[in-house]
Amino acid sequence: MSKRRVFDIDFPGGEPAAPEGPEPQGRRGPMAAAISENADALRERASAEAAIRAENDRLAHEHVRLKKAGLITDLIPLERIRTDKLTRDRSATTDPELEELKASIRAIGLSNPIRVEAVDDGYELIQGFRRLAAYRALHAETGDDAYACIPAALVAGGEALEALYRRMVDENLVRRDISFAEMAQLALAYADDPGTDVDNVEDAVARLYASAARQKRSYIRHFASVLRALESRLRFPEAIPRKLGLDLEKRLSDPGFATRLKARLAAAFPATAEQELEVLRYAAKTGLATRPASARAGRSAAKTTLRCTVPAGTVRCAARDGKVELTMARDFSSIDRHRLEAAVAAFMAQLDD
């Protein structure tokens, strides 16, 4: 066996310098190094996940805050929007300003989104009935997919019914074209709604129109009395001007006035708002009072004439003391005698109702 040779190495400048710092206690093995590196990675991951959770919580709270304020908007398909929750304070008849709104939407789009809240199967409209009606009309007329969805602010659900009504009312109170009859109709519906804790018109008006002037609330109550007395006989209540509505409300104190006016409206069956207003003006002026027998003895020449549009055509009616004449382009002699007799009996029964 060869012998190992030992020889010296000369380092420049003398002996090699010792390493700085504490002397290592011992060398770590591969397993210890892997465990340490894994622990560091887990700490970093946990820290990152905590930061993500904190950011998600912040964003969630911010989303809820913005949603409560109605500042979260989305494009909602028209067919997913319902209008059942609230009775509207806008008439269901044709809105004369709807064409202007449609033209504005065509030109510049919808500058003020509607407001909806999410329900199980879609969305419930809170504010923006006219804007929704305009979008639906545009989509029906044009078939353009641009009008298939409407910009809508998503509000948080669960808001009290009274607050939802107040939002709708306060939005429309600033509009000059909303009539006293429309406001009165809403008060009546609110009082009749089982979901509210109000059961009379006075309290409904006070609650819904708290931001309106006292005189305006008084007018709304007067119109509500007229609408309640005439039930559903009015076809164009939104056309009634303020003075005429107040005059009719005063006439309600006359015994039998409401019954006589309902019968007159049923007989006239007005096809237009102006025709209905003509009947109402005459009723407010005369009271439709039945003259006593002593007044009829002289056979007054006073006569009432009117036109009535029915499915079969236009009927001209001339009524005077003791006589009623109905004229239209129809051969009444061809009608079965028993049917004619029943029609006359129904006519007289309606007058005496």
From TrEMBL:
<dbReference type="GO" id="GO:0007059">
    <property type="term" value="P:chromosome segregation"/>
</dbReference>
<dbReference type="InterPro" id="IPR050336">
    <property type="entry name" value="Chromosome_partition/occlusion"/>
</dbReference>
<dbReference type="InterPro" id="IPR003115">
    <property type="entry name" value="ParB_N"/>
</dbReference>
<feature type="coiled-coil region">
    <location>
        <begin position="31"/>
        <end position="58"/>
    </location>
</feature>
<protein>
    <submittedName>
        <fullName>ParB N-terminal domain-containing protein</fullName>
    </submittedName>
</protein>
<feature type="region of interest" description="Disordered">
    <location>
        <begin position="1"/>
        <end position="31"/>
    </location>
</feature>
<dbReference type="Pfam" id="PF02195">
    <property type="entry name" value="ParB_N"/>
</dbReference>
<dbReference type="InterPro" id="IPR036086">
    <property type="entry name" value="ParB/Sulfiredoxin_sf"/>
</dbReference>
<feature type="compositionally biased region" description="Low complexity">
    <location>
        <begin position="12"/>
        <end position="30"/>
    </location>
</feature>
<keyword id="KW-0175">Coiled coil</keyword>
<feature type="domain" description="ParB-like N-terminal">
    <location>
        <begin position="79"/>
        <end position="173"/>
    </location>
</feature>
<dbReference type="GO" id="GO:0005694">
    <property type="term" value="C:chromosome"/>
</dbReference>
